[in-house]
Amino acid sequence: MIYPTARAVILAAIGAPVALLIGLIAPGYWVVGGAWLALLLGLGLVDALLGPGRAAAAVFLEAPPTTGVGVSGNLVVRARFDAAPPPAAEVAIETNAKLSAVPALGVMPFENGEGIARFELTPTRRGVGEISTIWLRWRGVLGLVWKQLRETPRRQLLVTPDIHGVKATAIRLFSRDAQFGLKVQLETGEGSEFHALREVNGGADPRTIDWKQSARHGVLLGKEFRVERNHPVVFAIDTGRTMCEPLLGQPRLDRAINASLLLAYVCLKTGDMVAAYGFDARPGGFSGIVAGTAGFPRLQRHLAGLEYSDAETNFTLGLTQLGVALKRRSLVVVFTDFADATSAELMVENLTRLLRRHVVVFVAMRDEELEAIAAAEPVSAETVSRAVTAHALMRSRDLVIARLSRLGVRIVDAPAARIGAQLIATYLDLKRSDAV
């Protein structure tokens, strides 16, 4: 695309009143105005022909394939010309709503035939970001026309939760209970997988004493066990309307994904296997089983790809499909929310079916804003009305949680900021009790 610069427009604008004045004073010379415009047009055509054209330019984009929410990264645009390049060019980037590029218009100086423009790329929301269009424009030799090149790389970037923060938090929380870490799985006496015999010095559980081997060796020997590995841990994440509503400024779905990644890292560290499954009105994709910390990025990519949905969640279809997909006994961690008694009843009914074969953990995020409304001082009729409504919602939630607990579902009920820590503690408790 070639179009006039501000200089050409100003020159044309200056010529208009001059031509008008000449036409008024000397009507016979009215053609001067037309001649001025024709001259500018001719100079513009010459300017478009001089210097490098659009066909001589090549644009290259350098961007990371993956980035974390709120973690700024570098986006580099390079340009080369087959002929002598212009002194400088301007670059603009178009992205989708999940990315933000700063500055809006970058300046690209050319040295040794190559120009480089750098942008600060900041993900604004989890999902698949896209750099859709790059505009590169430069002035002609006379400065009368812009020569513009438009490239459509359609480069996609996976915007994930901040994985560095997840790993650091997981390691910090995990180190508080080291007896279920990698080191102690070969040392501790809790678990169900036999490891070795060791001489008992006293204070041992009589149930762990191997009387036959003690009689054979003439020494009191006890059995040592270690925590079993390779148990499947599956994260079932509701991506429907209620989970996409904000909780303390962040969608519940994003908080569920952060907590899932936190626990997944610990599970993979302890030798268990992990999978993720999303569902709303329809069953979502199943990530497949991931084992070992080397598989963690695969799980991260799958969870980052869970899209926000405004559909009502179909618990029957989603959880039934999950039950069919699980071929062996698993620990199923369910992240969901319910808006009314009907959806809560369907959720309880389908979780009960899962309990027949699997261990189920239900994650309930406390709505601190709702609790604050319920606890507000009744200074007006509106405040009282809001508090009564909040109390009713909280009571309904507590009744559903109590019912699930009686059925045998393990409940993680904590403020959103502490869900990850509580989830890890619950997982380690289940490992201790040999429930998984």
Please, could you describe this protein's structure?
- By secondary structure, the protein is α+β, with helices and mostly antiparallel strands.
- It has four domains: 2-49; 54-160, Immunoglobulin-like (Sandwich); 163-180 and 229-432, 3-Layer(aba) Sandwich (Rossmann fold), CATH 3.40.50; 197-225, no CATH class.
- The protein has helices spanning 6-25, 31-49, 163-175, 211-217, 252-269, 296-304, 315-325, 341-355, 368-374, 381-407, 419-432, and strands at 2-4, 57-62, 66-68, 73-81, 88-95, 99-102, 106-111, 114-123, 127-139, 145-151, 155-160, 193-199, 221-226, 232-238, 246-247, 250-251, 273-279, 283-286, 290-291, 331-335, 359-366, 410-415.
- Strands 1, 2, 3, 4, 5, 6, 7, 8, 9, 10 and 11 form an eleven-stranded mixed β-sheet that branches. Strands 14, 17, 18, 19, 20, 21 and 22 form a seven-stranded mixed β-sheet that branches.
- Helix 3 packs across helix 5 (252-269) and helix 5 (252-269) packs parallel to helix 11 (419-432).
- The protein starts with a strand and ends with a helix.
- Residues 178-192 have low confidence and may be disordered.
